[in-house]
Amino acid sequence: MMKKNLKYLLALLCIIVLLLCTGCSSDSAAPQPISITVWTYYNGTLLESFNTLVKTFNETVGKEKGIIVEAYSQGSVNELEASVMQSAEGKVGAAAMPNIFSAYADTADALDKLGLVVDISSYLTADERAAYVDNYLTEGDFGQTGSIKIFPVAKSTELLFLNETDWQPFAEATGTQESEMLTIEGLLAVAERYYNWTDAQTATPDDGKALFGRDAMANYLLIGAQELGCTIFEVDGDGRLTLHFDRDIIRKLWDSYYVPFIKGYFSAAGRFRSDDIKTGNLLCYVGSSSSGTFFPSRVITSDTESHDITLKVLPCPKFADGESFAVQQGAGMVVTAGDEAKVRASVEFLKWFTQPENNISFSVDSGYLPVTTAANDMEAIKTSGLELSPKMESILSNAVQSVKNNTLYTPSAFAGGNKARKVLEYSLSDLASADRATVQERVAAGQPAADAEAEFLTDEYFDAWYGGICTALEKYAG
């Protein structure tokens, strides 16, 4: 009897031990959530939209797959780049490198040279790669080997934004058509006409108003040169720059911006050209499609005078005899080297974020373009079920058509690329602003406009500027 009871006790003990072991095994096998950090330069509506999508991911796919995304805005693009570089260089007080960060090609290339960027091409199937607009993927193909070191999440291009309300009196009085501004040559003619029309409204001579401005001068020079057959920054597979700054082509670009600026047909006063629309200093400007969200609803000319305005969106003007190019803008996402599980989790999030339904949601909120061919379609956007304001519909429809009807262009990465781009950005625009201020001072002192401008409109003056900018750019070549 005693032996029998002992057998029962031993059996019961085995069962208890087995249950305990099973419980321990179950606990130890439970997957721990993988937390990944994302740094962006997003602010305002863009940041709100991104954070909403991150929250949705965490509550759905992330919860299912054990991935938690934590997103942080680092402020501006420059602040983000500075934070990333400080982390990469291990500076004292710098935060740990994020798993994902927003970046343009030159920053991504610099981090790649430090061995901190993951080529995520192997994490995408052929079908997944085929879903994206091809130009968007090749932007991150450093060395032209088929790599993907920048994952596209949202893109933009340039459009012309017009204050249609204040345009109408001018158009009706002069018979001017909006379609005249589809070419740069037509834009120049309309701007001169507008200056003369506004000048005639007062008894004061030479006080006409500017029609037009540009947000990004580097884009104007790079894309304008492409249209005219010149690639200013030609970069080979090893990242070496060959500079092409054809004098005749650059002279045409000068004559189509600097000259009308000096004459008062173009202008730039505020930080952005949408600011100049708001103050009534301009009627239209070329800027990023995403900048359309900042187009003002009112013009405020004084403390007591303001009025509502409506927006009309038009394609970015092109040279009449040029090829069809459009700028490709918008930072992508870079996945940083590290734990394989975190890399896979990062790619999982980026794939989810760029699924048409999610990417369209981000676009409708921000004015950026979706990055897949399926989503980069107005029918898909309209039938997404998302609320689309007339303003955003006009912005996105024009941007989508620009992508479809033009060859997209963005410079390849090279050492010093950011600095070289800044030379293009400020060399012409700063000179134009300074020289126009001098002209205005001379006119205010009683000098006729033609005499005040003459010094700046000579071949010698152009040649001096041309020689200086060539010298500034050549240091980045070779």
Radius of gyration using CA atoms only: 28 Å
Largest sheet: 4 strands, mixed
Uncertain residue segments: 22-28
Mean pLDDT: 92
Distance between the termini: 96 Å
Shape: globular
How much beta, percentage-wise?
5-15%
Supply the number of helical segments.
Answer: 20
Strand order of the largest sheet: 2-1-3-13
Please give the share of residues in helix: 40-55%
Structural class: alpha/beta
| Number of E-state strands | 14
Structure description:
This protein is α/β, with parallel strands linked by helices. The chain is built from 20 helices and 14 strands. The strands form 5 sheets. A 4-stranded mixed β-sheet has the order 2-1-3-13. It is globular. The N and C termini lie far apart (96 Å).
Features:
single chain; 478 residues; alpha/beta; four-stranded mixed beta sheet; 14 strands; 49% helix; globular
